[in-house]
Specification:
By secondary structure, the protein is mainly alpha-helical. The protein contains eight helices and four strands, in the order ααββαββααααα.
Length: 202
């Protein structure tokens, strides 16, 4: 499509498409009918814009990073030299996108990528574990804090214990032990709650 046709296709003004061109969001290709000019590659441009649209503003955001394409002036009719240069740039950009796709596929095949739902689950699990560790830490030092009268000492004890908890968590995450211990943490917490309930009854 021409830029004007693409503007109608997206339901925006031609000026918006011009701004997208300047921002590098529009992907051009050779016109199959008139090889002396460049037109908008609709499928690739739609994919790029759809991955970058800000739903609150209806405008492209920075989105997923991609290799920036050098800004090349669009060819005027009859300017064959500029047209050849722009076509070459389009081919380079296409090759870069294909390279990124291959790298992503290789990373998926190597198990280096995980579905977003799995990452969300792990983040939620980590948050739960952090919360439980912080509660356990405060229970462990509560009597010590209660015995202190100096505010600075109380703050120093609390800060040191918080740093220790997070340092331990970081070590466990690095070793990959945190997820394995998650079920045990739940069981330990249940036992601890049961003991506290019995002590309260006594």
């Amino acid at each position: 499509m021409t830029k004007a046709e693409y503007a109608r296709h997206r339901g925006v003004k031609p000026s918006a498409v011009s701004n997208w061109v300047k921002a590098g969001h529009i992907v051009f290709c050779e016109d199959p009918v008139r090889p002396d000019r460049m037109v908008v590659d609709v499928a690739r441009t739609d994919a790029r814009l759809n991955s970058r649209i800000d739903p609150t503003r209806g405008r492209p955001t920075t989105g997923i990073p991609h290799a920036p394409a050098p800004q090349v002036a669009e060819p005027e009719l009859g300017d064959m030299l500029t047209g050849v240069r722009t076509a070459a740039q389009v081919r380079i950009e296409l090759a870069e996108e294909q390279l990124i796709e291959r790298r992503q596929k290789n990373a998926r095949d190597a198990g280096e990528l995980a579905p977003r739902v799995e990452l969300d689950r792990r983040a939620a699990e980590l948050g739960r574990v952090v919360r439980e560790r912080m509660h356990a830490m405060f229970r462990a030092i509560s009597e010590r804090l209660a015995a202190e009268r100096e505010v600075r000492t109380i703050l120093a004890i609390g800060s040191a214990e918080i740093d220790r908890v997070f340092a331990d968590l970081a070590d466990e995450v690095e070793r990959g032990a945190l997820v394995e211990d998650a079920d045990e943490t739940v069981e330990d917490q249940a036992i601890e709650n049961e003991v506290e309930a019995q002590l309260a009854e006594d």
